[in-house]
């Protein structure tokens, strides 16, 4: 048996993100899924770009605030305590709208935990 307790706030935020992103899979010893906690101020987006994953399925559980997720068909509003799931090859861009009342906090889980399967998506190419 094995157990790990991770103090999320002790995990240094990733320096390459447009908002606060704490990558928790490594400190948690997880190898079957990626797990990140995002905190985005109004006007900040979670991912580096509008994108899709070739093989990874993603789930965004909103802990606080409201998350906007832009897709080619529409923009979804995901309130606190709701889950938004994105299948592989489904373009999306998750963000906190610039007119939001405050920050949004999101737990994002991706499986399998692939590092380089994100593909930039440009809706103008459709």
From TrEMBL:
What's one Pfam family here?
Cupin_2
Q: What is this protein called?
A: Cupin
Coiled-coil intervals: none
Which organism does this record belong to?
Halorubrum persicum
Q: Tell me the ranges covered by the Cupin type-2 domain, including all copies.
A: 38-104
Q: What CDD domains does the database record attribute to this sequence?
A: cupin_RmlC-like
Listed InterPro entries: Cupin_2, RmlC-like_jellyroll, RmlC_Cupin_sf
């Amino acid at each position: 048996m094995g157990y790990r307790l991770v103090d999320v706030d002790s995990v240094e935020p990733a320096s390459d993100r447009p908002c606060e992103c704490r990558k928790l899979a490594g400190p948690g010893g997880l190898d079957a899924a990626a797990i990140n906690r995002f905190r985005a101020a109004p006007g900040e987006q979670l991912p580096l770009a509008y994108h899709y994953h070739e093989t990874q399925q993603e789930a965004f559980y909103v802990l606080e605030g409201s998350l906007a997720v832009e897709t080619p068909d529409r923009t979804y509003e995901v309130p606190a305590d709701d889950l938004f799931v994105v299948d592989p090859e489904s373009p999306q861009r998750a963000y906190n709208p610039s007119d939001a009342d405050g920050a949004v906090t999101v737990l994002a889980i991706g499986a399998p935990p692939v590092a380089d399967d994100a593909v930039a998506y440009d809706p103008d190419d459709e």
